[in-house]
Amino acid sequence: MAVLWASRVTYLLILIFNLSTWIDLIGIWTELPLIVAHLPEGWTLPSIISMITCLSNIYPLIIIVIRCIRGSKNFSEIPHIYAVIFIGIGGCMVLGLFWHKTFYLFHQQRSVIFLVATFFLSMLDCSSSLIYFDYMKRFRPKYLNAMFFGEGLTGLIPALIAFAQGIGGEITCESGHKPSYSRPRFSVKIYFFILAALITCSLFAFILLQWTSIAQSGDALEKRDETMIIEDQNVKQ
């Protein structure tokens, strides 16, 4: 009974842990209908974000180069996972506080903070699948379902939050034929803070997976990883 309970908890922790893969970048795309009306780039913003996302794929390439130089046995994905999660939390907090701030650059106002934060979040999200798969190698194959389920929720959860926020309400025309959008139930700031809170939950899930014996108690680890854990415990004793 205890093994079954630990196995289910491990499944849930892996699911929550994998929410940090794409939820921030997808969250930005989901919130664009509210953001574009307040930033100087306007509806060119989606094209700019697409270009930023393409450029951010340099980080997965860097990880591959580092792995080739150090060798697979000497490469640890753990620091990169912490980087993805912590920068994800920090990036969402920065977006929540400063997404609307602009600077005069190259003869016009530009959303420098928003675009820089988007670049860093894109850079880490694009590498998340690469390094998270490395981490999942220590678990039995059946737990890959939890990983894919968690990644799938990174698209659904921002959409549900945006739906609750009230994006895409009725548009009316004010004097001068300017479109007026209905006010959302909560602000863009709160939206990004919610995403930061969800990524924080992913951090706690990862800590529990990494630093407790829940996965081992649930018989979730591959045999080679169980042997390594037992050997490490014997060395500490």
Would you kindly provide a brief summary of this structure?
InterPro entries: Riboflavin_transptr. By secondary structure, the protein is mainly α.
Global morphology: globular
Largest sheet, in brief, is: 2 strands, antiparallel
Regions with little confidence, pLDDT below 50 for 5+ residues: 226-237
Instruction: Classify the secondary structure makeup into a structural class.
Output: mainly alpha
- The ordered string of helix (H) and strand (E) elements is HHHHHEEHHEEHHH
User: pLDDT average, as an integer?
Assistant: 85
Number of helices: 10
Name the helicity range: 55-70%
Work out the strand percent: 5-15%
Taking strands numbered 1, 2, ... along the chain, how are they ordered across the largest sheet? 1-2
User: What is the multimeric organization of the chains shown?
Assistant: single chain
Instruction: Please identify, by name, the CATH architecture.
Output: Up-down Bundle
Distance between the termini: 29 Å
User: How many distinct folded domains?
Assistant: 1
Q: How many strand segments? A: 4
Q: CATH topology, anyone?
A: Growth Hormone, Chain: A
User: So what's the CATH class?
Assistant: Mainly Alpha
Subcellular location: Cell membrane
Catalytic activity: riboflavin(in) = riboflavin(out)
Transmembrane segments: 12-36, 48-69, 81-100, 112-133, 145-168, 188-209
Function: Plasma membrane transporter mediating the uptake by cells of the water soluble vitamin B2/riboflavin that plays a key role in biochemical oxidation-reduction reactions of the carbohydrate, lipid, and amino acid metabolism.
